[in-house]
Amino acid sequence: MNFEGFLDFFEIKNWNFSDFESLKNILKHRNIKLQVSIFAATNFDKDGLKSIFQFLKIQKIKLDQKIDCDGVMESIEKSRKILENPLIMKNVLEDLGCFDIERLRKVSKSVRNCIEIVKPDPKIRKIALKIEDSNFIRMDICSKFQENLSIFYQKNLDGYSVNRASFNGPCDLSKIFLTDFTQILKNQRVPIELLDIQGGSNDQFMDLILKNCSPKFFGQFQVQNLILQRLSDYQVFQILKFIDSKFLETITIMDALKSFSLDDYSKLDQWKMAKQLVIEGFSITTPIQNLEIFNFSNLDIKVPNLSIEDVIHLKTKFSESQTVMKLKINFERFTNPENIENFLRRPYSQKSHNSIWFIRIPNSQKCLHLNYVISRSFIFSRFDVSSIPEDAFPNRLGYQI
Fold this sequence. Notes:
By secondary structure, the protein is an alpha/beta fold. It is 28% helix and 32% strand. The strands form 2 sheets. It has a 15-stranded mixed beta sheet with strand order 8-7-6-5-4-9-10-11-12-13-14-18-17-16-15. The radius of gyration is 30 Å and the shape is elongated.
């Protein structure tokens, strides 16, 4: 049972209370009231009829029984008038999430204007965007109250649709989506916990969306954790510029369309302020010794080639940094593994799949734990000297860097 828009005539006969309950359950999930020109009822349950009035907008009503419709309608009207008071509305909205706020906006134009005056925080926790191509965009929203909503933007032969609502005529799907996206977030007062953006096969459409984003939004979106998937170097760089650097904690870049350089990223405040960097599913082309990544506390990156000289450089930079706690560098090819003991000495532990070194950090009570996973990665970690085995160093003075 699916009502859309406006009904000229709506008639019921021989309805009991359970019939009205079934109708009420359908109507209460609609974003807008069902508009009825003439509503007629014969042989019905009075209390049941009263229970659905709040979901209907009726121009004329015909009943075969006396019922206090005026009282019901007057009560609803009084409730609506109360909600048109900004002071009362502000208190009401404090306990509502973005979905309830949007439902409330549909009550009337006056209530909608009142909401615009109050500017309530939608309390959004997470947003996931999946941008397949120029014909399809999906936006998933999770609120503070664990409510979830999916919005689908799709082109069709005659125009476009947003979920089940269809619109005729030519359209630019990127602009329609961006209008909604900025509208949803414009009053967000606390940082979004997670923004996950996934590109698709048509990277030109993602470029168009970024081109249509106004520069006035640079640094405006408060996000704690950012995940970027299947995007190009240019797209990742542009998206980072829209994020407020004061709140960004984690940057995760996954399955980029192709390998790219990180040379320009170190110039961004967003890059400098974030605490964790994860790069998965692709390699970066910036030479190891040119990487500006030691402002992060946790790092997980991948490179195509790694040499023992690169490992020594990373060991030195890791030890000098006051910030980095863990660095994992994955590689496709280790160019000279046979020389590793010439540079790092004999490992504390050596097995078929990995080797481990403990190295004292000068003028510190910290120790570098270096784990070489054969043919896969080097993992640098920092520990207190007091927490490692007594025989971890080659001599009593301790092997220092």
